[in-house]
Write a structure and sequence with these properties.
single chain, alpha/beta, Rossmann fold, 32% helix
């Protein structure tokens, strides 16, 4: 006798919670195990460039979530540098005809569009508040969301024997998330300091922090990174 086809009612949970509320609930779960920080970390600072950090210059594309984001990022980057651990800064830009942006650059075409960030333009420049030590920090321009995609990052981390990535920058829902997923996929313990990432809308920001926390990363207060360096220095 033929069996009836399998059929199920929807199981997706629907709740009347904001993304911020959902994040707070997940974050408060004391039973969720952490990946933790291993023996050697790298700080990967994603796209602290003026297109995304300067609302005074580029109000349509920039975003500020924690006003001290760059301050916190500079501090933990300095701690890593002092400890002899890698610090990486990425940014994004494209050639004059945007032919290297691929399909990602086809959805809009305005002066604010992603593919119209050109090399050496104001939008491409790192925010002047970023304290980059060009003698030791790795800086490079990427084309796609992940800091890993078609870049030197993977081999750089292998050479430096890193086992943990601390990912900062923006946007939380875009390049931070993409880099975090790739970080985990490459076998790295992945840490996202909450105060060090930013997005244009709290729904995008907190929804993605929730998903990162549930699946791909430890989302922690930046004080935990400070404390790890302090303990290590004893």
């Amino acid at each position: 006798m033929a069996q009836p086809p399998l059929s199920f009612e929807p199981t997706m949970v629907c709740e009347d919670l904001t993304a911020r509320q959902m994040y707070a609930r997940v974050k408060a779960n004391p039973n969720r195990a952490k990946f933790g920080i291993g023996n050697k970390l790298a700080i990967v600072n994603i796209d602290f460039q003026q297109a995304y950090t300067r609302p005074d210059l580029f109000p349509n594309t920039s975003y500020v979530t924690d006003p001290r984001q760059i301050e916190h990022t500079n501090r933990i980057s300095a701690l890593a540098r002092t400890a002899g651990m890698p610090v990486i800064w990425t940014r994004v830009a494209y050639k004059p005809d945007a032919g290297d942006a691929g399909v990602w650059g086809t959805r809009t075409n305005t002066p604010d569009s992603l593919q119209n960030i050109k090399y050496d333009s104001e939008r491409h420049q790192f925010d002047p508040r970023c304290e980059i030590d060009h003698s030791v920090d790795l800086t490079y321009t990427k084309r796609m969301p992940s800091a890993f995609f078609e870049t030197q990052l993977a081999s750089y981390l292998v050479w430096h024997k890193v086992d943990t990535l601390v990912i900062t920058g923006g946007s939380t829902s875009g390049c931070v998330r993409a880099t975090a997923v790739d970080s985990l996929s490459h076998g790295y313990r992945t840490i996202v300091p909450e105060e060090c990432v930013a997005d244009k809308h709290e729904s995008y920001h907190f929804a993605n922090l929730t998903d990162l926390l549930l699946k791909y990363a430890d989302v922690v207060g930046v004080a935990e990174i400070d404390a790890w360096f302090a303990e290590r220095a004893r």
